[in-house]
Specification:
It contains 14 helices and no strands. The two termini are 19 Å apart. It is mostly helical. Helix content is 79%, strand content 0%. It has 2 domains: 72 residues, no CATH class; 178 residues, MetI-like fold (Orthogonal Bundle). The protein is globular, with a radius of gyration of 25 Å. The longest helix is centred in the first third of the chain and has 36 residues.
């Protein structure tokens, strides 16, 4: 099991390096000059070039890239071009809003999606099953920002029961969470239904029923235990999508998280913010995927036996 963990950790390194390299390449070829934006249109060319030298923008690409990596290893993502504040401090200050929205939306989608998928599978081809699948397809097909606008229109403007922006109270978290959770709930529901249908048709489920076990025990002790294993991997991908979707929701609902912070860096060509936030989110996502892989290995005996068998063979040899 330790070998499995080390393997997953080592796989994170080239992935994160590749992401940072791609972002650096896009920044290098993207139009726009941070020095010119900062000084304004009235600045002379000499002043702009002087500021570019101070910012290090005139250095070769790989010099800038490896300088950023070297500083990032020490926990220094640089300072913003415009407010001169450390990017790392801003990231930690704003990350709590993003992680709360992501965790709430994923938790809500799990709590609703898994029971709904089980219900649809155990009532296959009924009206309830068709309604659940139709609703899931509608939710999957529509992007989160569209749901966010619909929720604002209905709950904030028409009913006026929830705030349209800000998270000054607990009510402010409801709309961002629900707007993200709808699509994720649909994904989990469809996958859970498919897994459950496949499992309940297995021979061991037929045997359990023949032994006279109750329907509840057959479904939730025997079938669910195996049907839920693939959901663990889906939850990992959904959490990564939730981090990205949370940024969009933050902009729509005016939440001071990483979304608005990254957007300000993109619009202002603030390269330390762009590179720092991308690297930060890549690390967080890689860590979450590592935890999901470990959870998957914990509940799936095939993975444990694979590495145990290799260790035993090595010992015998």
């Amino acid at each position: 099991m330790i070998k499995y963990i080390l393997k997953r950790i080592l796989m994170m390194i080239p992935i994160i390096l590749g992401i940072t390299l791609i972002v650096a390449l896009f920044i290098h070829v993207a139009p726009g000059d941070p020095a010119r934006i900062k000084l304004g249109s009235e600045a002379t060319e000499e002043e702009i070039q002087e500021l570019r030298d101070i910012m290090g923008l005139n250095d070769p690409f790989f010099v800038k890239y490896f300088r950023f990596l070297g500083n990032a290893v020490r926990g220094d993502f640089g300072k913003s071009y415009y407010n001169n504040r450390p990017v790392m401090d801003e990231l930690f200050q704003r990350f709590r809003y993003t992680i709360v929205i992501a965790l709430l939306s994923v938790s809500l989608s799990i709590v609703v999606g898994i029971p709904l998928g089980i219900f649809a599978a155990t009532h296959q081809y009924t009206l309830w099953d068709n309604a659940a699948i139709t609703l899931a397809l509608v939710c999957v097909s529509m992007p989160a920002f569209f749901f966010a606008l619909l929720l604002i229109r209905f709950f904030s403007i028409t009913l006026q029961v929830l705030p349209a922006a800000g998270v000054s109270s607990w009510k402010g978290w409801i709309l961002p969470t629900v707007s993200l959770a709808l699509g994720f709930t649909a994904t989990i529901t469809r996958q859970m239904r498919s897994n459950m249908l496949e499992v309940i048709r297995q021979d061991y489920i037929t045997t359990a029923r023949a032994k006279g076990l109750s329907v509840f025990r057959v479904r939730y002790k025997h079938a669910l235990k195996n049907a839920i294993i693939p959901i663990i991997m889906i939850v990992g991908g959904i959490f990564g999508m939730a981090l990205g979707g949370a940024m969009i929701a933050e902009v729509i609902y005016s939440v001071p998280g990483l979304g608005s912070f990254t957007l300000s860096g993109l619009t202002g060509r603030d390269y330390p913010i762009i590179q720092g936030s991308t690297l930060f989110m890549s690390i967080i996502f890689s860590i979450m995927m590592l935890l999901i892989d470990l959870g998957f290995a914990f509940v799936d005996p095939r993975i444990r036996s694979q590495y145990t068998r290799k260790r035993r063979k090595g010992g015998v040899t």
